[in-house]
Design goal:
17 strands; alpha/beta; disordered N terminus; 11 helices
């Protein structure tokens, strides 16, 4: 059977102009600066960071974010759990409600030495997890997910449902590790005061859940919160033991659009090459379509719609008002944003650009490696990344 190795003509130390496009570019200086920003804030608030690696999916990125080689980290798939465990990470939280058909895989990871915790938010799964824990003679650690903002999943108040789930786990054979929540509705806010208010809603809601469990005589050592906006703008995290966040490492146009960061903080971009023009329409055609950028249009609901991405020069500086207005599978269409009176830039065939993504998670998921830039804007490393489930 023929095995084809990925073609990678780039040599370490070459500039971006040597890349075969489209490809995923990671600015290591911005990555490190973004991580340091959140860490400084959380140190002041006295809580640990359990970074969410669902965006990065790379051990090389993880090593620049984790407290220690063993973790802790958060993952969103068991594929990620396998991958990071294979690189020596032991303390893992799988922060998506567990599906029954994944439990055998979870127990197998734990049998091999992973300190893997799962999450759930209903009595039916709690009963199954407790029974499986007894069957496997392995008290499976569990965080109960709590809904503090009516955004996605989690147990809503009143406390009696929460306590019933907690008691089922604790008395049924599993290990009740604590509670977790995710303030996903913070992505719909647009100013620091609103982020701070949502952070307090998140904190007070999850601390109330922890109190309800403890009042019922149940253990609750971990109280876990997390979203990139609330993590950055929380003013008080009393009662919280850890913060989960992921996209803060790279940032993206959605985070910039709601005011969590500036475009100069965005560490991730897609390098693309001009392959043609449609002069009568004012279009510049590049070789990066939605297969390189993703279909995500997250900025469409924000005050400034950035199309499929903001176009930058190779230094990573945005070209005024130039965005990817449309995308086919392998063709991206660049043009001056609607309503702008600015002139179109002169970008001849063969010219290269970088494009900031709307959603770092979705764009990174289209690629199998990062081309890592140093401060001299040369490629200092190739970092593999994984995808799939």
């Amino acid at each position: 059977m023929l095995s084809v190795a990925p073609f990678s003509p780039i040599e370490i130390g070459q500039g971006l102009h040597a890349l075969e496009t489209p490809c995923l570019v990671l600015d290591e200086f911005r990555l490190i600066r973004n991580v340091a920003r959140l860490r400084r804030h959380l140190v002041k608030l006295g809580v640990k960071l359990r970074p969410h690696l669902k965006t990065a999916k790379s051990i090389d990125v993880a090593r620049r974010v984790m407290d220690a080689p063993q973790g802790p980290i958060t993952v969103s798939t068991l594929r990620e759990a396998e991958y990071f465990f294979g690189h020596g990470v032991r303390d893992l939280l799988y922060a998506v409600g567990i599906a029954p058909n994944k439990l055998d895989h979870v127990f197998d990871l734990r049998r091999r030495g992973a300190n893997l915790t799962i999450a759930l938010d209903n009595l039916e799964v709690a009963q199954l997890v407790a029974a499986k824990s007894v069957e496997r003679r392995d008290p499976l650690p569990v965080l109960i997910e709590v809904d503090t903002d009516e955004h996605r999943s989690g147990i809503k108040p009143p406390a009696d449902i929460l306590v019933a789930v907690g008691r089922t786990l604790h008395e049924g054979g599993a290990a009740l590790r604590g509670v977790m929540t995710h303030a996903g509705s913070s992505y719909g806010l647009h100013d620091q005061a609103s982020f701070a208010a949502m952070a307090e809603q998140e904190r007070s809601g999850i601390v109330a859940a922890a109190t309800a469990l403890r009042t019922a005589g149940l253990p609750c050592p971990e109280v876990s919160v997390g979203s990139t906006p609330t993590a950055h703008f929380a003013r008080d995290l009393t009662g919280v033991t850890e913060v989960r966040a992921g996209v803060f490492m790279f940032f993206d146009l959605v985070m910039a659009g709601i005011g969590v960061c500036d475009t100069k903080d965005i560490a991730l971009s897609v390098a693309a090459t001009v392959i043609g023009h449609q002069q009568d329409k004012g279009w510049i055609i590049v070789d990066a379509g939605w297969m390189a950028m993703s279909r995500d249009r997250g900025t469409a609901r924000l005050p400034i719609d950035q199309g499929y991405g903001v176009v930058c020069d190779l230094a990573g500086d945005p070209i005024p008002d130039l965005i990817m207005i449309d995308a086919n599978q392998e063709h991206g269409i660049l043009a001056i944003r609607p309503g702008s009176q600015g002139p179109a830039p002169r970008l001849p065939v063969g010219a290269m650009v970088r494009i900031f993504p709307n959603h770092a998670c979705a764009t990174a998921a289209q690629h199998d490696r990062y081309y890592v830039l140093n401060q001299s804007r040369t490629v200092s490393a190739l970092w593999p990344r994984i995808y799939g489930w």
